[in-house]
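USER:
Working in pairs, take the chain set out below, taking as long as you need, and write a paragraph about the fold.
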Amino acid sequence: MREAAAHLRETACLTTLKASDIQMDKKTKKNKSWRTQLSYLLKNSTSQRKRSTTPTEDELDQWAESMNTLLSSRYGRIAFHVFMKSEFCEENLEFWIACEDLRQIKSPTKLRSRARGIYEQFVKCESPKEVNLDFFTRDAIEQSLHNPSLSCFSSAQTKVYSLMENNCYPRFLLSSLYSDLRSAAVQKERHS
């Protein structure tokens, strides 16, 4: 069992993550353990480049310093997404990533389409992955969809980021997932 977990952690570090990678197959059961979910994400990653290495103890320490550092790491995003999925709040991270991706769009047509998609998926009342936003923020976003800008979700994204930073992120750092990653990093450095 420990060998399988170690292999999983080793495999986890050999992948990279794009926003589309965190969309899990609808057929998967929602109550899977984080280990099973992590394995699924890694097996179904669109990119299987072997240039990455397992996160070092220093890298894990950096993740603990700020959520921004955690989210800047592709592997950190995978681990945080798996944790949030186990907490039934993954829509917050998915919304934040979608907003970050939106800021990279150059074409006004694509921007309008993607902004509408984000609204329909995350912001609209009773949407499939509705994030917790107040009426005024929702209304401002809805009004901005007539002529969307790269920052039309900035207020909502800031609120969701703050929610994750003050709620989910501290729990992630105390989770068995983070603890297992740290143990694996320490063990690997001892054997190096």
